[in-house]
């Protein structure tokens, strides 16, 4: 049967390297774990290296494992009916609708607490967010709510439209923030400037008022998302899937009318996003799939046999679909060499990667 393989030490290493890089730029990193489907061991690993705030998109991935000392950011909008659970189980959420914010306020007042929010601004992604010309009126109304603490503004890139953030965006964002603050007489504590698509800019550019990034894909894939570039200092095989060969037969390529050796592997569309996986063995090529199996052109690799295990590299969509598939078993790996490397790094730095509430 197919298995998901999760290399915890590689994930831990990626998170620490990214955090150190961003910390040197004065930017807090919030790990976004939504693709891991609330995996308890992944959450614990990130907590153990000092991240006291994790970002999730689904409430059920939060409250099923909630501990009193654990803090969560909810990054997907909710309907007003979910306000009570959101206030109870998260410390901060990204919001875009005034009706929902009012519901959060009522829930917070009822629970005698303050719920923090970041107001999401639609900059150019087009997926979600308050339109720029409405932000001042939103902020003015939110400031009147007793149960809400408006911590700052948030921006998104590369979630819907394939328009990466550029150097030109930064001064415009800076001037926009200053204009909103001037009109509202408010100084924002946090400017959450985006996701893994901001990493390339952050490496060589001063991000100005942006002091927080929400990072997910780079931790779990080792890629930034603006240009889908591999980050060479990171591991890119943190999560992988394996399947077994259940058939090997000669087949005919109807386009070329040439025969080839085909393996059938017990991974299908029901298991993962098969368009988003690649065999680690570069001699192999996926030529087709069904709901239950992959069809693999073996090329010159005629040494494979029935029962052999094939390893596949996963893109982000494949990681997310596989981790949310309860039919797949999870195998966790730990590497003593990487553990020693991480311990040396931790002993040298001694910093906690803390989100300031």
């Amino acid at each position: 049967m197919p298995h998901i393989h999760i290399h915890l030490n590689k994930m831990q290493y990626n998170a620490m390297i990214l955090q150190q890089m961003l910390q040197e730029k004065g930017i807090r990193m919030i790990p976004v774990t939504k693709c891991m489907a609330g995996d308890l061991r992944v959450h614990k690993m990130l907590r153990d290296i000092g991240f006291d705030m994790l970002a999730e998109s689904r409430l059920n991935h939060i409250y099923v494992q909630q501990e009193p000392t654990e803090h969560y950011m909810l990054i997907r909008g909710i309907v007003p009916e979910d306000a009570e659970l959101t206030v109870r189980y998260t410390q901060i959420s990204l919001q875009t609708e005034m009706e929902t914010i009012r519901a959060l306020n009522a829930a917070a007042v009822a629970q005698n607490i303050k719920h923090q929010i970041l107001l999401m601004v639609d900059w150019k992604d087009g997926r979600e967010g308050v339109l720029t010309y409405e932000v001042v009126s939103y902020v003015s109304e939110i400031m009147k709510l007793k149960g809400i603490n408006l911590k700052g503004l948030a921006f998104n890139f590369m979630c819907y439209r394939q328009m990466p953030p550029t150097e030109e965006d930064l001064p415009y964002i800076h001037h926009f923030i200053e204009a909103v603050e001037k009109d509202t007489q408010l100084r924002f504590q946090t400017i959450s400037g985006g996701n893994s698509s901001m990493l390339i800019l952050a490496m060589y550019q001063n991000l100005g008022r942006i002091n927080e990034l929400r990072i997910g894909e780079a931790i779990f894939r080792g890629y930034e998302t603006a240009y889908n570039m591999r980050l060479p200092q990171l591991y890119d095989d943190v999560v992988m899937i394996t399947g077994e060969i259940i058939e090997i037969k000669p087949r005919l390529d109807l386009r070329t009318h040439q025969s080839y050796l085909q393996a059938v592997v017990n991974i299908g569309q029901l298991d993962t996003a098969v368009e988003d996986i690649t065999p680690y063995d570069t001699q192999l090529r996926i030529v087709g799939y069904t709901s239950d199996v992959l069809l693999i052109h073996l090329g010159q690799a005629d040494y494979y046999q029935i029962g052999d295990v094939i390893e596949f590299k996963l893109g982000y969509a494949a990681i997310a679909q596989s981790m949310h598939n309860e039919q797949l078993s999870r195998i966790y790996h730990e590497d003593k060499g990487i553990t020693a490397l991480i311990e040396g790094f931790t002993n040298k730095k001694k910093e906690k990667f803390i989100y300031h509430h």
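Residues 24 and 203 are 10 Å apart (CA to CA). The chain has eleven helices and 16 strands.
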